[in-house]
Amino acid sequence: MAEQPLHEHTLANGLRVVVCEDHVVPLAAVNIWYRVGSRHEQNGVDGKSRTGLAHLFEHLMFQGSANVAEGEHAALLESAGATFNASTSFERTNYYETVPVSHLELALWLEADRMGTLPAALTQENLDNQRDVVKNERRQRYDNQPYGTAFERLCRLTFPPGHPYAHTPIGSMEDLDATTIEDCVEFFRTWYAPGNAVLSIVGDVDAQEAIAMVERYFGNIPPGPAAPPPRPGDLEPLTGIRLEEVDEEVPSAAYFAMMTLPSDGGPEIEAAEMAAEILGGGSGSRLYDRMVRRDQIATEVWTGVTRLVDGPSLAIVEAIGPDPARISDVLDEELARFAEEGPTEDEAARAAAQAERGLLERIETVAGLADALSANATQFNDPARTFTAAERAAAVTAEQIKDAAARWLAPGARTALSYGGSK
Amino acid sequence: MTTLIPDFPARPVPGPMPAWAFPTGVAGRIPGGPATLRCDLPGRRLAAVRLVLDAGAGRESTGQDGVAALTARVLLEGTEPGGGTKLAAAFERLGASLHAYTDLAALRVLLDAPVTRLEKALELLGEVLRGPALDDADTRRLVRERLEEIAQEDAAPASRAIRELRAQLFPAGSRPAKHTDGSKESVERLTGEQVRAYYSAIDPSEGTAVITGDLTGVDAEGALAAALEGWRATAAPLPPPDTALPTPGPRLVIVDRPGSVQSYLCVGHGVPGRDHADWPALTVACHVLGGGLTSRLNALLREEKGYTYGMRAGLVRLRHCGIFVAQGAVHTEVTADALTDMLGALRSVLEGVGEGECRAAVSALADSAPSDYETARAVASELADAASAGLGADYPRRYLEDLRAVTADGVTRAYGEHIDQDALTVVIVGDAGKIRGPLEDRGHAPTVVEG
User: Domain Peptidase M16 N-terminal, which positions (chain A) (predicted)?
Assistant: First the structure.
């Protein structure tokens, strides 16, 4: 795939900038990755637990800063037809907006002001309000949805207590309640320094002008302290099936499983993700064919992968069907067969074609490309790695997929949840 | 403790918005088959094909609710009875994907493919559409999957709320009052024979195929024609659509969901369809109410009170009418207070919309269009939807122009004229045991239905 030229620059305060010109539509996407997520939170190891703080803090970033009044960030962007949001995951928090290119400087100014001066606008009232909002987010997305806490439960089963990945970004109600203004200020001072961030701009811009704008608005933000080294995230391979029977009102019995995969960026991740795709990625996959079409023990089955860099990547299998124990057995049969036979040439080719399609989807919008550039710059020090995703997948052989399946998707080695059904 | 950024520049004043217009297409027709619309989008390497057929759930025969949706699903099983994963695999090999679904207005077929493999993907699509197997065994399996899906939808508060809203708003027994994809009772009776009969009655010449992407060097029309030529209806036409209109409230219905930690609030009212001159003004009214974080509902219920993660208001686009819906989930304990605030915000629009508020909403809706329609998929879906509603290929462009011409007074007038605050239908999905009393204390008389 043709690589689009990237322009890179690092400010004296450590902020790294990546710019990619894309003149198809008069838009500019701004995307900032801060290298902080839920894995950097305290979760009880030293007697203090502040799970959910990274995400709660993300909400506070929209409540104003030294030169931006409460509500003004949203008002300025909304009234310009901009789309904007932020998200918090295990390893990073990102903030992004797509604006008409006429509003690029305004977007940069807004991002710079909150990067430089967020605590100036932090009040107890804002914290209390956004804490309530986040608690309602937790209820809406997880607690009040059937199977809504499955991912959280699986992480708790997969990782030992206190492990950085044992809790998910939404955090616990208790820890959200316990969070103070001081926690938030300290969190900001520790993690929101320019040197811990990457800023990407993609769109109808002149690269040198865009970099000059970044210098103008971000250049005088003090460098701040270096981010503390993260706690190690490695995990021994899973052995046996660690099963939790979930006693929750759900519409149908179901079986959820989590398996660990190699970390992103290493030599094995591409093959491992393709193995997971062949196993359960859509209606052409092995698990779908076996469980839904042929045996009809499930009405739905799906496999997905969350790539992680500082810990193991995670594969999830979800199946809806009346007999979770039977689903578990059939999953083992299919895993054993896959490990032994490996994929067919056709399966490997299809997985590579899907990876190519995935790349096209990821980089076709200015926002998607900006996020990918920030991700690859933050995690691999190489924003251009964005463009090699398809060729990395195409280079994987059927033999490598077989090896990855045998090693990472072995039968009888996972954590699992069973909802209802026969016991 | 906090210092300002030294020498931080003043807030930049943005220049004028850059020019942009919704892409135009070239219209054509496949002899005896669908109308076509080709739209070239430079740089878009993922092409999109959207085929809309005038075979939405609104045209199902009595007693066959859900047959349109089921037909769309069985279609994706391909050309061989029991063909298994063959069709899915064939599209995957191309890095392409095929989906199909129905709403009340149309049966929609969605093909996405890299432009380099578009012609091959279209060839496959043509084989499926001209000769689908529509096999009995596949149908039976997909009926079971659909029944499972109904159970899942009814367990999720938002989808349960919308289903109940339609049941309350539209006359009992009318097609729009019932779930587009059918109910448990109707779906479990559907057969392969009914699916085949439904498919054979679809008239391709009543449909439109939209194709978008960087089509430089691709004979899009030729490939479309080769794929779809010769495909004909082989049975009598489907009955005309059921165009029952929403009826006025007031109503307040609680869908009981014991143990719910939140209540899903959903307030609705019928409005005219997209062909009505007030549609753009009503869209702006919705944005003022629940379009973003600064909208009236979110400013009050989220940013001031912390009752919710977010509220939104919008218009549901049916072909023959529209539905105004304001909705969001609130903590169970504050349900009654939140409803009072929500209804108050809805009423507040009658007292007027500020000129600045109106301009901001218009800009939020119209100036986001270049970003909303950045992908070939988004452009194709919008054009196909306009076609399925009989609005014409220039509709998206006209709509954006009309939107920019909306005035604050026009918003207030249209909202007051079409949405009667004394005739709203309120649906709350939540724990009736906990929320009924507080609602009655505030003068409401809720009816409780089972979840």
Answer: 17-154
CA distance B400 to chain A (A): 13
Distance from CA of A238 to the nearest CA of B (A): 31
CA B92 vs CA A129, A346, A396, B95: distances in Å: 47, 10, 17, 5
Interchain contact A288–B (C-beta under 8 A): yes
Number of Cβ within 10 Å of residue A289's Cβ equals 18
What are the structural domains, with CATH classification, of chain A?
A: 7-218 (3.30.830.10), 240-419 (3.30.830.10)
CA distance A269 to A401: 10
Bridge partners for B328 per DSSP: B265, B311
Residues 121-160 of B with CB under 8 A from A: 141, 144-145, 148-149, 151-152, 154-157
A153-210 pLDDT, tens digit each: 999 999 999 999 999 999 999 999 999 999 999 999 999 999 999 999 999 999 999 9
Predicted structure pTM score: 0.97
B293 lies within 8 A of chain A by CB? yes
Q: Where on the phi/psi map is residue A199: left (φ > 0), alpha (ψ -120 to 50), or beta?
A: beta
Does residue B120 belong to the interface with chain A, where contact is any CB pair within 8 Å? no
CA-nearest residue of chain A to B20?
A26
Closest among A1, A39, A11, A31 to A233, alpha carbons compared: A39
pLDDT of residue A421: 66
Q: Does A323 touch chain B (CB under 8 A)?
A: no
ipTM over 0.90: yes
- Looking at residue B308, its amino acid is T
| Cβ-Cβ contacts under 8 Å for B114 (sequence gap 6 or more) | A356, A357, A360, B45, B46, B47, B94, B95, B96
- What whole-number distance in Å separates Cα of residue B218 and Cα of residue B226? 13
| DSSP H or E segment with residue B331 | strand B322-331
B43–chain A Cβ distance below 8 A for any pair: yes
